[in-house]
Design a protein that fits this description.
Elements lengths: L2 H10 L9 E5 L2 E5 L3 H10 L11 E4 L9 H17 L3 E2 L8 H7 L8 E4 L13 E4 L2 H10 L1 E5 L2 E6 L10 H12 L7 E6 L1 H4 L3 H9 L8 E3 L4 H8 L16
Parallel strand pairs: 2-3, 2-5, 3-4, 5-6, 8-9, 9-10
Antiparallel strand pairs: 1-7
Helix pairs in contact: 2-5, 6-8
Length: about 250
């Protein structure tokens, strides 16, 4: 199995899964921001739910409209603030503590190897750089996860990108992913897992790996993912807020 299939199988309580299979899986972390979370919160509260599935595993970050440029943007952020206070959400990042959400979650040790992460933001695929299955969903899907801690998935097919050789001076992870997207097109990985490996990938810092996986969605990918290694371990060891697990694809995947 691929690394993506192994993570999905583990969270669905199955020994194995196959591309095209529909599963229901438990979610480790759910993310909402000040554009998408207000819609999820509205759906959540219309159902009269008393509690979120786990106040430690829901993350709310006001990062699109903060600092607020007008009353409307301030109102978007206030929805998150009020909800976080009402339900005692542990990982609500107020203005002054927040930042770009996809940099913030790895830095805070919230996104970890082996996790299944969803976020109501298309670039949630960023956290695949840590060896997690991470993908963007709609606001109503986020609401369902806020209630149940579970979500359905269709297991994606996987594409493996092997990047050999050493990087020339000034070449970065952003150049690698832009080159790949240029080769396959903006829909070249539609609903597929993009797995990145090879000598060039292994030499990259965590920041550059995050950049590569962040842009998997720009090729239509369901997720981007890089198998964790010593660089991953060094990054998460001092940050992790909970246990994590390394997965990698089988040689014959």
């Amino acid at each position: 199995m691929t690394i993506t299939e192994k993570i999905l199988a583990a969270h669905a309580g199955k020994q194995s899964v196959s591309p095209g299979e529909f599963i229901e899986a438990s979610i480790d972390l759910a993310l909402g921001n000040d554009i998408t979370a207000p819609l999820a919160i509205d759906a959540f509260e219309k159902l009269g739910i008393a509690e979120v599935f786990d106040r430690k595993r829901l993350v709310l970050v006001p990062d699109h409209y903060a600092p607020n440029k007008d009353i409307l943007s301030a109102g978007q952020c206030k929805v998150l603030r009020d909800f976080a206070r009402k339900y005692n959400i542990e990982n609500y990042f107020e203005v002054g503590r927040m930042g770009v959400e996809h940099a913030l979650l790895p830095e805070q040790g919230l996104a970890l190897p082996g996790d299944l992460i969803i976020g109501a933001d298309s670039h949630t695929c960023t956290y695949g750089a840590l060896g997690a299955f991470s993908t963007g969903v709609g606001s109503t899907d986020l609401a369902c996860v806020m209630i149940s801690g579970k979500l359905w998935f269709k297991v994606p097919e996987s594409l493996k990108f092997i990047c050999n050789g050493k990087l020339s001076k000034w070449v970065t992870g952003k150049d690698i992913i832009l080159y790949i997207i240029g080769q396959i097109g903006v829909d070249g990985a539609r609903y597929q897992a993009m797995e990145f490996t090879g000598e060039a990938i292994a030499s990259l810092s965590m920041q550059e790996r995050l950049t590569i996986c962040n842009m998997a969605i720009e090729a239509g990918g369901k997720n981007g993912i890089i198998a964790p290694d010593d660089i991953t371990e060094q990054y998460v060891l001092s940050r992790a807020k909970r246990p994590y697990k390394f997965y990698e694809s089988d040689p014959d995947a």
